Protein: FAD-dependent oxidoreductase
Organism: Streptomyces sanyensis
Amino acid sequence: MAAPLQEMDGQDGAVGEPKKVTVIGAGIAGLVTAYELERLGHDVEVVEASQEIGGRIRTHRFGPGGAGPFAELGAMRIPAGHRLTMHYIAELGLQNQVHEFRTLFSDDAAYLPSSSGYLRVRDAHKTLVEEFSAGLPERRYRENTLLFGAWLDASIRAIAPRRFYEALHDEIDVELLNLVDHIDLSAYRSGTAANRFDLHAFFADHPQVRSFCPPRLERFLDDVLDETSSTIVRLRGGMDALPRRLAARVRGPVLTGREVVGIDVRDDAVRLRIRQGAGTVVRSCDYVVCTVPFTVLRRMRLTGFDQDKLDIVHGTKYWPATKIAFHCREPFWEKDGISGGASFTGGHVRQTYYPPAEGDPALGAVLLASYAIGPDADELSRLGERERNEVVLRELSVMHPELRQDGMILGVAGLAWGERPWSLGAATVRWGQEAALREAERREAARPQRGLFFAGEHCSAKPAWIEGAIESAIDAAHEIEWYEPRASRVFASARPSRTGGAA
């Protein structure tokens, strides 16, 4: 796991001779790895297959020359408790850009679906409790316990793909409710009318309740709590400031348009087969850090890997994500009383976010019309771009008929991460796994192959978050700093010491 950052601060030069390191991928993991290795005195270059840096951070700017409002088509939020990410934000001089990110159910005027149509968040509690209670066996629970269960169920339904939710729906079981029923929940009622439930605060104060969650729900609950927390932040000028600032701090070359198509691990070197334009070259590297998703890695020609490593490369599961943003003439949702946050829209759309309109009002505003993950994202990505946009517009217009006004939509931008060749997925997902299995898979994903090291959110304890990418990058930098090739270890006793005597 990543060591505390102060252990890396203040070190001048490498342990032993400086190493020459090639980093594959210019996402957050690759850039942090390069940055930290250079701080330790090593020589680093970064090769990136696409023409852009940032990996799965993608800020799209509308308008001529990108002068208009922007949409986050990739990573868009950071839990304030992610200390590594917040450290780098401060170190890169971005702390003044940190602002609140308003999330699902954070605005009383936002919407969510029910069997009787769309409801405002402020009015949803009665219907949610009735529908949740209808599925319970015959037993009377306190009002607050039912409110807890109803909002937990609603949060799972809003965040999980539809098929995943159907499997989890019955896992808020009687044992969990029986335990919660003995706790005074009045302090966790939230919202202007105290008709919502602060799940994040409740589980923070009562961690023992987690042990009563069914195994399939326990890991997923982490993401539910992160995504519905009131302590999530964003970067006001766009999340792409983070990789841009990092790349500017890296002294070695960051080379785009270099696609690695083969990796051959040998005892004395790692040979990379790199495609650039119409040509392909083979380069022999002393050390390599691979930060690309395993979905991309497993399409390369891989030799010199042991079988356990190949198994984890080919077996790691990724979920896709699809985002579609509308550039609107004006933030019409504000006239509807919505000041931010997100609605759970359901259908193919799934989630709809209302980013703050912070730029020139004459340039319009952005609506993140649809954010879908997993099988829901796959359904959208299988459609052609035009059909996909029409489906989202048709479904979302039921909730927001203003979208049908002439001239309301000025432009559309979307990204299906499962289809993008440099990612082939949005994030590693280990929901439903036991903790021991999750840790075993993490360790195997991060395990080096001689001079080939690995980083990326898939190698971390925080998959799907920037925090995980940074954590794994620091781990990889530490491993390279202290790594000795096998031949060096075997013949260490024959090596002269720096004082001239035997080592």
